[in-house]
Design goal:
This protein has helices spanning 20-26, 34-43, 72-87, 99-103, 106-111, 154-165, 169-186; strands at residues 7-8, 47-48, 54-56, 60-61, 65-69, 93-97, 115-116, 193-194, 205-206, 225-226. It is α/β, with parallel strands linked by helices and 227 residues long.
Amino acid sequence: MFEGAGLVAQTMGPPILSFYDELLRVTTNYPYDLRQTEQLMAEVGYAKGGDGFYTSPAAGRFAPEMLGLAEGDEAQQTTIVADYLRRAGIDASLRLAPAAQLAQSNEMKATFPGLRSNYTGGTVDMGQQHLITSRIAGPENRWRATNRIGWSTPEHDRLFEAWSGALDRTERNQLMIQMLRTVREELPGLPLYFELSVTAHTGALEGPRTIAPDSTAYGNVHEWTWR
């Protein structure tokens, strides 16, 4: 998708975070491991049939549907993921919906029973606000809330509330590490990659730097110089 310039995501926090190394030490990694796929599927009663796809005597073929936008990077991303699943023996089918349809159908996004491709912007909370219980989409809020997967855990809610109210940077970083570790263990979603963004400036300006979600774009503007 990015011609070799993209970054594979091991967590929801990008490698340019100031505490990334500490985050990696405490989070679970999920490599693309077909042997482990076969082992885990066997534990829940699935084995590959003659056509190479996982099937259960009780539940039949394992064939989840994937939903994504029909336009832009998300269409390509959803298609790639569906292909990876099929290569692994999971008979994933693809539903690509126009952006206008998805924009007008929050209920469909919140109640979709399969897998859904989603984009989370590079905000300072690294998308954690979209995973708290109070933001679960439902009929009471006309499906407009942002937690459309319906995932809920008291520990994540507690950590997010503490992080939101903390002022000390070290404390905030530790709380974020705990949040991201919880998400990585319970796996409401699997991060795939980080997009790169470009800040263009004249070569005569020295000082603009790579920006992480826990920093600010112009925090060192007092150090910028013209040459």
